[in-house]
Amino acid sequence: MEWHRRAENDYYINVRTRRSDGLLIGRSGETLRALQQVVQAILQHRHSRLPSIVVDVGGYKQRRENFLRKKAMAIAKIVSETGREMALDPLTDKERRLVETALDEMEGIRYYTIGTGYRKNVIIAPR
Predict the structure, then answer these.
(1) In the list 12, 31, 55, 85, which could disulfide-bond 36, CB 3.0-4.6 Å?
(2) Is residue 76 classed as helix, strand or coil in its secondary structure?
(3) Average pLDDT rounded to a whole number, residues 108-127
């Protein structure tokens, strides 16, 4: 397990396993999100002024963030070429913000969110 500080108020924990990454990550990262919540709850119960903790398994979150950025940019390019709207898969709020930040750099497209609750869809459309 690696443990290091990414920013002044942010710690990053990367758990490495030999063969069990999938077990700890779960479907679409659900188990990993639950693991992070448990770790944060335990640490915050013991230390009231604890900074933010990010729990990752085998670099999954880093790979997922890179994948989402590249996918959003590729879809935005297709949208600008075809002039047709396209939807991304349902995303968590954090993933949605990450995609929107990547799309802010692109000209000629706009985006909006549909859906409610835990997972929302980002629609990429031409301007």
Answers:
(1) 55
(2) helix
(3) 88
